[in-house]
Amino acid sequence: MSSNISCSCSQQTNFNLVQVNGAWTRQSESDHLTEGKSSDAKIYENWSEHGLSWTVVSPIVFTYRVIQCRNLLHPQNETLLWGHLGNGQPKGCVGNSKPVRRFVVIDETVDQLYGSRVTHYFESRNVVFKILPLPTNEENKSMTLVTRILEEVHQFGVDRRSEPIIAIGGGVCLDVVGLAASLYRRRTPYIRVPTTLLSYVDASVGAKTGVNFAGGKNKLGSYVPPVATFLDCSFFQTIPQRQISNGMAEMLKMALVKHRGLFELLEAEGRNLLENKLQPQNVSQHEDGATAAVRISIETMLEELVPNLWEDDLDRLVDFGHLVSPELEMRVLPALLHGEAVNIDMSFMVYVAHHMGLLTAEDRGRIIQCMLGLNLPVWHRECTLALVQKSLRERLKHSAGSLRMPLPTGLGRAEIFHDMIEDNLLFQAHQRWTDDLSSFVNNKTS
Ligand SMILES: NC(=O)c1ccc[n+]([C@@H]2O[C@H](COP(=O)([O-])OP(=O)(O)OC[C@H]3O[C@@H](n4cnc5c(N)ncnc54)[C@H](O)[C@@H]3O)[C@@H](O)[C@H]2O)c1
Questions:
Q1: Minimum CA distance residue for ligand 1 atom 23
Q2: How far, in Å, is the centroid of ligand 1 from the Cα of 400?
Q3: What b/e string do you get for 167-183 counting C-beta neighbours within 10 Å, with b at 16 or more?
Q4: Residue 282 CA, ligand 1 centroid: distance in Å
Q5: Domains, the chain, ranges and CATH?
Q6: Most C-beta atoms within 10 A of its C-beta, which of 89, 253, 412, 425?
Q7: Can you give the pLDDT of all 446 residues of the chain as single tens digits?
């Protein structure tokens, strides 16, 4: 846009903003700029026969840190307390005698396992703290929990400039606390400490917060990233193997849509990684399989999320496995874990991709074998053709008139498809999927 554009019916002036002596002032782009602090924001002023209007463009920048570390709860490790600060950022005012304060929300089960270490950590660092253990599971991922947190935060009192709220737990805990923090005093900083594999590789690295509402998954939420995420994979040691498989579904998703190397790693070593709960082996100088698999999952996820933090662009490869699964997960709750529902969706979509001629039978077979190797469900009786069609119709309704369906086009490659899939093709793919895979159902997913 150029400044002072005029025509017979309207005139537009473009303004930059400059701060002089504490006050922000508009300066027309055509004027000589005054010395002072300038902003990236712009105001476009328009006079027309309808009157005066202003269009505001105000870029908002989020900066957050994702830090992988060991021994996060060791009192000598500063990360939990100060890792959110960038290099050189002060930990407080010099000479400030105010005690350091932290409000922590922790998943109830995680509290039983690690609560005493969290307490010890803060006590040994003379922090004034409050730990709030909550039953953060999918069934009660609701505004009730958010309100409960807000009441407790309010009672404790946090300084929203310097006292980030800390969430320690799985994806539910991180999502619920993130939403509470984004509401408290409009936006209070928060920190994510994921303790499940799924939340480590997925829920912790983006900006989304949320709770279930009106029977819909994550129907209420916000796009407000944490100030920091601290990743310590030693938490995985206490999660059941089913939860590891659950997280590996999201890793497999990233492998299928964009990283063949990760797919081949999961194909070759997946079972082993699952059994060792993705603990680093440290046997040689080289990066071991677990460390590489987790690192690539995080890096590929960051690559996809960061340029599109607010999901303005609806063409998202990371939506693979997330078209039918939300409906399925909510319908059978609590029978399927999030990653299990995602995997069933991906397994079906692999069949759809094959029927569309995008994927060879051999690649389809390798993907399904890899899923089975990770102990993931590949079929579910509630994932009916009717449910698939309903989910795709919903998707169409909420995706600006285009399906935007990510589908694999090879191993480690995917594309977004915009047109509605023909009923006949869906029917055939579903039939074949059921014929091939319904016998793999085990008790946990039936
Ligand atoms: N915000 C996002 O971008 C995003 C992305 C993916 C998933 N999610 C959300 O994440 C949720 C699923 O996350 P989840 O799979 O972590 O489920 P979860 O939070 O329900 O945790 C699973 C279970 O593991 C237990 N647990 C957690 N850590 C443990 C540990 N170290 N040892 C033993 N038990 C432990 C919990 O008590 C819980 O029972 C879903 O609600 C999903 O919508 C959000």
A1: 170
A2: 30
A3: bbbbbbbbbbbbbbbbb
A4: 27
A5: 5-57 (no CATH), 65-88+98-238 (3.40.50.1970), 241-445 (1.20.1090.10)
A6: 253
A7: 444 555 557 899 999 999 999 999 999 988 877 788 999 999 999 999 989 999 999 999 999 999 999 999 999 999 999 999 987 787 765 556 789 999 999 999 999 999 999 999 999 999 999 999 999 999 999 999 999 999 999 999 999 889 999 999 999 999 999 999 999 999 999 999 999 999 999 988 999 999 999 988 899 999 999 999 999 999 999 999 999 999 999 999 999 999 999 999 999 999 999 999 999 987 667 899 999 999 999 999 999 999 999 999 999 999 999 999 999 998 998 999 999 999 999 999 999 999 999 999 999 999 999 999 999 999 999 999 999 999 999 888 888 888 899 999 999 999 999 988 899 999 999 999 999 999 998 644 44
Residue of 208, 217, 258, 277 with catalytic role: 208
Closest residue CA from atom 34 of ligand 1: 239
Task: Report yes or no: 273 and 297 within 8 Å, Cβ to Cβ.
Answer: no
Residue bearing tokens 């803060």: 122
Residue 40: Cβ-neighbour burial (10 angstroms; 0-12, 13-18, 19+)? exposed
Contact call for residues 127 and 166 (beta carbons, < 8 A): no
Amino acid at 398: H
Distance between CA 318 and CA 311 in Å, rounded? 11
∠ CA 97-101-103, nearest 5°, is: 170
CA 416/CA 420 separation, integer angstroms: 12
The region, left, alpha or beta by phi > 0 then psi within -120 to 50, assigned to residue 277 is left
Cis before 334? omega within 30: yes
Residues 167/178, Cβ–Cβ less than 8 Å: yes
CA-closest residue to ligand 1 atom 5: 203
Buried b / exposed e over 284-309, threshold 16 CB at 10 Å, is: eeeebbbbbbbebbbebbeebbeeeb
* Residue 232 near residue 70 (C-beta atoms within 8 A): yes
Whether 208 sits among the annotated catalytic residues: the reply is yes
Joined tokens for residue 361? 């039978």
Residues with CB under 6 A from ligand 1: 107, 109-110, 113, 136-138, 141, 169-173, 175, 195-196, 198-199, 202-203, 206, 208, 218, 235, 238-239, 243, 246, 337-338
